[in-house]
Structures are given as structure tokens and as C-alpha cells.
Amino acid sequence: MTAQPMHHHRPEPERVPRTYDGIANALQGARRMEFFREFGEAPLEQAESVLRRWWCEAMLDTDPDADRIREAAMAGTLPTTTVDDALALRKARGLPVD
Hints:
The chain is mainly α. The protein has one domain (20-92). It contains five helices and no strands. It has helices at 20-26, 29-41, 47-61, 66-75, 83-92. The termini are far apart.
């Protein structure tokens, strides 16, 4: 019997930390001010959903492939998937789905 090397998958750190400061630091100019305004006006029970929405926006803004993705979307050549398939992929990767 021989031993096989084990390769542990280490997830890369997120480009944008899932924190108020992480989101604010990733957004630029008017978008950052819109985030500040929306979060500041949000009732307590909506604060988490505001952070989630803006974290997604910040991730899109900092995506190194953003220009290519926008061009493909405008050209109608961006690959699509179903919500069920996207949720299954997130679950398989151990990512949040709620």
C-alpha cells in the first residue's frame, strides 16, 4: 500500500470582506455614498439585507473580469444557468445560499 499526497483546498480570501468597512472600501465615489445613505436610512431589521446587496455590488465592481462579462452580457453571449443549478453549485462549494 502506498500513501497518496493529500491536497487540501484552501479557499482564496474574498476580494471584499463581508463587513461594512470592507464594502465601503471597495465601492467608489457616488456608489459609496449611495451605500452610506441606504445603510444609514435602513431600519435595523433591514440592515443585513442592505449589507448583502451592497456586498454583491462591491464584488461585481472589483471583479477582474468585469469588463469582459459586461461586454458578453451586452452582446448576448454571456452563458446562463438556472437558479437551481446555481444554488446547487454554491452548496457544493460550501457557500451561503440564503
